[in-house]
Amino acid sequence: MTVLDNDTFLIRLSEVFKAAEPIGRKVSLSMKRYTYDERKLIAKQQKEKTEPSSEAKTVSSDKEYPCLFRAVCGKTKLSTVVCLLQMSASN
Asked: Is residue 41 part of a domain?
């Protein structure tokens, strides 16, 4: 599943909905916080015996994370990443 830009995602999503409606297929949409697990990154770096990066050392609870949107209909899978600034601009 490749990550599309936001406009392409919306265009393809509307096409999926139009194609799914006449044949009664379900379209599943999901949204979740897009991040990686810092603990896994640190463990991987320790396994490789490298110095942990400054990115892995800083863990902040007030950090703003982008959102990952996914759509699935049969074998068709779409995804996009939306930053918080883009979401507030669209309101």
From this structure: yes
Task: Count the domains in the chain.
Answer: 1
What is the per-residue pLDDT across 34-57, written as a single tens digit (0 to 9) for each? 876 666 666 777 777 655 555 555
3-class SS string, the chain: CCEECHHHHHHHHHHHHHHHHHHCCCCEEEEEECCCCHHHHHHHHHHCCCCCCHHHHCCCCCCCCCEEEEEEECCEEEEEEECHHHHHHHC
pTM: 0.64
Structure tokens at 24: 């009664």
Q: Is residue 15 part of a domain?
A: yes
- List, run by run, the mean pLDDT of 10-residue segments along the chain (91 residues): 90 95 94 77 69 54 83 95 71 57
